[in-house]
Write a structure and sequence with these properties.
single chain; alpha+beta; four-stranded antiparallel β-sheet; 9 helices; about 30% helix
Length: about 375
């Protein structure tokens, strides 16, 4: 390839970019892509660095999406290698963001640069610095700008790490929806020996959580695993064993399939909260935030191209999956069909995050093959 994806990945890894400060790797990509004929537009919003890069003016338009922001490294002393050093050891490239997902960005940038010389249509690369953060000023900002500028993609390939253990074993054709509820129960503080003079908010909160977890949300659907509800926190701030606290707080996270939507689940959360609050004579308020709805790109021509490209380069026909967490595909799906294919995700967000060097080259070859087959 014209650009070595491994060396580009190492260059990106050496530029610290903990969310939302990803200006340095975005600027580096602008330099590389501009030098190879891509028209680059910075779409910065809310202090977040974003990039839209296009080669060609004709249709159809195939896009790639990824992020160069990363999660914090934790204690650098816990790492075998400098988390910003991009060192190669035993055939693996180490660094924060190696797996999630600077190496994949390097792979699709290298593939696009290589393909651009003969591509009969247009290639678009969208890169954000806000995927690991709130997600409000990243890919959303790019799509807002594209709508205003009259830019469109006909299909998009996301580069998130998609393989649980072996390269090429899985691609993502959809994602479950995600939402979180922050609950606050307010009662009346009192002495634990005189509960008739108090109203215990913990009892109301436990009752509400019991109602939520009494039965599974569903058993799964044709294209999705079962929805899940997890209690992720409960706290009163109380350290005294003989005091009934005035307040109790809890957090609940739901990952839901296409049997539900955020609105229906919100109504269920609110109805059960009102019932628990009434039974215990306390106030129970909810702050509900929906991160994304479930979606799926149905198997068809786009998924066929991706599966064939992965099989040709890895020898494995990947499973079409909707498992895992959320990604920026939840925004892209409203713009065009999107399929995600990337590296092995075993070390993402971990100490000593790393990716096999051979897998970076393999992924670049997969992306290059996808481009060729898409325009063929």
């Amino acid at each position: 390839m014209t650009v070595d994806p491994v060396e580009l990945a190492r260059a990106l890894l050496r530029l610290p970019s903990v969310t939302p400060d990803a200006h340095a790797p975005v600027a580096h990509l602008v330099d590389i892509l501009s030098a190879h004929g891509f028209a680059c537009t910075r779409i910065d919003r809310g202090g977040v660095a974003n990039l839209h890069a296009r080669h060609g003016t004709a249709g159809p338009v195939l896009g790639f999406n990824g992020h160069v922001d990363v999660v914090p490294v934790g204690d650098p002393a816990d790492w075998r290698h400098d988390p910003w050093g991009a060192e190669i050891d035993g055939g693996a490239l180490y660094g924060r963001g190696a797996c999630d997902m600077k190496a994949a960005v390097a792979a699709f940038a290298a593939a696009a640069i290589d393909a651009a010389r003969t591509c009969p249509g247009s290639l678009v690369l969208t890169v954000t610095g806000d995927e690991e953060g709130p997600g409000t000023d990243g890919t959303r900002a790019i799509l807002d700008w594209m709508a205003q500028a009259g830019e469109r993609m006909d299909a998009c390939i996301g580069g998130e790490p998609t393989c649980p253990a072996e390269m090429g074993e899985m691609v993502k054709i959809g994602r479950r929806g995600s939402m979180t509820a922050w609950a606050t129960a307010r009662g009346v503080q009192g002495h634990s020996a005189y509960p008739h003079n108090a109203r215990n908010p913990i009892h109301a909160m436990v009752d509400w959580l019991a109602r939520l977890t009494a039965a599974p949300l569903d058993e799964g659907t044709d294209l999705f695993d079962a929805s899940t509800l997890q209690v992720t926190g409960i706290d009163t701030g109380n350290t005294a064993n003989n005091v009934i606290p005035a307040t109790c707080r809890a957090m609940v996270n739901i990952r839901f399939n296409d049997a539900h939507d955020g609105a229906s689940l919100s109504r269920w959360l609110e109805e059960t909260a009102r019932a628990a609050a009434s039974d215990h004579d306390v106030a129970l308020d909810l702050d509900i935030r929906i991160s994304g709805e479930s979606f799926v790109t149905p198997p068809g021509p786009l998924t066929d191209i991706v599966q064939a490209a992965v099989a040709a380069e890895t020898g494995r026909v990947p499973v079409l999956s909707t498992s895992g967490g959320t990604s920026d595909a939840r925004f892209l799906k409203d713009h065009c069909p999107v399929v995600e294919v990337g590296l092995v995700n075993a070390t993402m967000h971990q100490v000593d995050e790393r990716v096999e060097v051979a897998h970076i080259r393999q992924l670049a070859a997969i992306y290059r093959r996808i481009i060729g087959e898409y325009f063929a």
